């Protein structure tokens, strides 16, 4: 199962394997407090795409398309997430304040559409 959680939320045993999917380390977050098992920064949107988006919700639909294009070259990283989900819960961690418009949401949707729905929630 794959879930999504903001990294600033309290870690929980139900999170399972915690994967940070941001390119930059979250401000004010220590490694001890974050309890990240894997920092998969290579799967995050490129710096150019992230800056272009700038959390402008008018750009959200285009951001989704552009990020999905970037992900087409990162299938091995997506496989890492699916494999982890098959072993138990994997939680995609993100730092942004907007819980509905971030790369973890896009990754979750992509994995849900393309993957084995029995391991993705």
Main traits of this protein?
alpha/beta, 40% helix
Description:
The protein has 121 residues and is an alpha/beta fold. It has one domain (2-119). Helix content is 40%, strand content 13%. The chain contains 5 helices and 4 strands; from the N terminus they run ββαβαααβα. The chain has a 4-stranded parallel β-sheet. β2 (17-20), α1 and β3 form a beta-alpha-beta unit. The protein is globular. Mean pLDDT is 91; it is low at 116-121.
In brief, what are we looking at here?
With 121 residues, this protein is an alpha/beta fold. It has five helices and four strands.
Strand order of the largest sheet: 1-4-2-3
| Largest sheet data | 4 strands, parallel
User: Helix amount, in percent?
Assistant: 25-40%
Order of helices and strands: EEHEHHHEH
Question: In terms of structural class, how would the helical and strand content be classed?
Answer: alpha/beta
Radius of gyration: 14 Å
Can you tell me the overall shape?
globular
CA distance, first residue to last residue? 5 Å
Overall pLDDT: 91
Number of strands: 4
Q: How many domains?
A: 1
| Residue runs with pLDDT of under 50 for 5 or more positions | 116-121
Helical segment count: 5
Residues in β-strands, percent: 5-15%
């Amino acid at each position: 199962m794959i879930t999504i959680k903001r990294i600033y939320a309290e870690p929980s045993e139900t999170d399972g394997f915690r994967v940070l999917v941001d390119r930059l380390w979250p401000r004010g977050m220590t490694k001890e407090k974050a309890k990240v098992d894997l920092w998969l920064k290579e799967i995050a949107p490129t710096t150019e795409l992230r800056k272009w988006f700038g959390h402008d919700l008018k750009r959200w639909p285009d951001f989704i398309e552009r990020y999905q294009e970037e992900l087409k070259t990162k299938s091995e990283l997506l496989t890492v997430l699916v494999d982890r989900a098959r072993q138990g819960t994997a939680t995609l961690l993100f730092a942004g304040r907007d819980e509905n418009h971030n790369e973890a949401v896009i990754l979750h949707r992509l994995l849900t559409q393309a993957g084995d729905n029995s391991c993705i929630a």
